[in-house]
Specification:
By secondary structure, this protein is of the alpha/beta class. The chain has a domain at 2-176 and 204-232 and 308-325: Rossmann fold (3-Layer(aba) Sandwich). It is built from 11 helices and 13 strands. The strands form 4 sheets. It has a 7-stranded parallel β-sheet, with helices on both faces. Helix 4 links the parallel strand 5 and strand 6 (163-167). The chain is globular and about 55 Å long. The two termini are 36 Å apart.
């Protein structure tokens, strides 16, 4: 599928982020001419050789048209930039929806042949029953993050068949700060699963498999929305146990790879999320925050659901995409990356 990108001009938003670190090398290997949008020109130092960086602000739209011209009129645009952790509905809407609106104003005139939006399972809502949430179900987001991602999808919908949307579930892998607190807890032998007496089933996917799916939907035959998963049904407890084993193999801890999974009552989780959110909002009045806390009330809105399962049968059937990285291998890669970067 990546053969369709050879010689193409590909412009990526969010390329300097977590998934971008896995996607950009694959785009270069596919023979594409790759450029990234970034507010910080110094980001070029962290990118693969040959990847250009153009300064632009997606929030305000400043510099976007100039960046598109300097990128040579991209054939393919991959939009991954997003805010995952915010303190209010306004934070998510301002970042994710405004970015989509700014981008659309340029895309409508630039007329690329393909636009790929990396959205989220949160945009369509939770599901606790196999095979998981499919693409033909009416979206029902439960969090501000989910609503902002759905709104971004709707803003870009007028692009018609040029637009393809992928909705990944939980993404993990080296370079990810979102699950870093979970890894740190597991390194101490403790993890949390939301709610008493329930499994909390989840789908999960390694970042490299997400990147491969993005390349796959750049193909001309891709149409509409595609959900992603690794073909397995996990629970939060089994995910954390596998994480503990990966940490044991890579770092020698916790003892024997065992992680004690605490099933916390939802009211207690709500209180803790509220305290984290309120404390961060108070601190933001005095000192600019680098980022919102990973655990906040919006993430609690997602954690109080029964589960988050995704059904990727459509992309497998129509495009032949398959996840290539098992949970065990993917968690070992993530653990090695965290240890290499000094995050654990």
């Amino acid at each position: 599928m990546s053969a369709s990108l050879r010689g193409k001009n590909v412009l990526v938003t969010g390329g300097t982020g977590f998934v971008g670190g896995h996607l950009l090398p694959l785009l270069v290997q596919a023979g594409a001419h790759v450029a990234c949008l970034s507010r910080n020109a110094s980001a070029a130092a962290r990118l693969p050789a040959g990847v250009a960086v153009f300064r632009a602000d997606l929030g305000t739209g400043e510099g976007l048209e100039r960046a598109f011209r300097e990128a040579g009129g991209p054939d393919v645009v991959i939009h991954m930039a997003a805010l995952l952790f915010g303190l209010s509905w306004q934070d998510y809407l301002r970042a994710n929806a405004s970015a989509a609106r700014s981008l659309f104003s340029v895309l409508d005139r630039a007329d690329p042949e393909r636009v790929v939006l990396v959205s989220s399972l949160a945009a369509v809502g939770p599901c606790a029953h196999a095979p998981g949430r499919a693409e033909d179900v009416a979206p029902a987001p439960v969090s501000a993050y989910g609503w902002s991602k759905l709104l971004a999808e709707q803003i870009l919908r007028p692009l018609g068949d040029r637009l393809v949307i992928v909705r990944p579930p939980i993404i993990y892998g080296s370079g990810d700060r979102g699950l870093l607190p979970v890894f740190r807890g597991a390194l101490r032998g403790v993890a949390v699963s939301p709610g008493l007496g329930r499994e909390f089933p989840v789908s999960a996917l390694h970042a490299e498999d997400v990147a491969r799916a993005v390349l796959c939907v750049c193909a001309p035959q891709a149409r509409g929305v595609y959900h992603l998963d690794d073909g397995r049904r996990h629970t939060m407890a089994s995910f954390c146990q596998a994480l503990g084993q990966a940490l044991y193999e890579c770092a020698g801890r916790p003892a024997g790879g065992r992680v004690r999974v605490l099933r916390l009552p939802l009211p207690l989780m709500a209180v803790s999320a509220g305290i984290c959110t309120a404390a961060a909002q108070l601190a933001a009045r005095f000192v600019p925050l680098q980022r919102a806390p990973n655990w906040n009330f919006d993430k609690y809105r997602e954690a109080r659901q029964e589960g988050w399962l995704s059904d990727a049968s459509r992309i497998r059937r129509e495009l032949g995409w398959e996840a290539g990285i098992s949970l065990a291998d993917g968690l070992r890669e993530a653990a090695r990356g965290y240890l290499r970067d000094g995050w654990l």
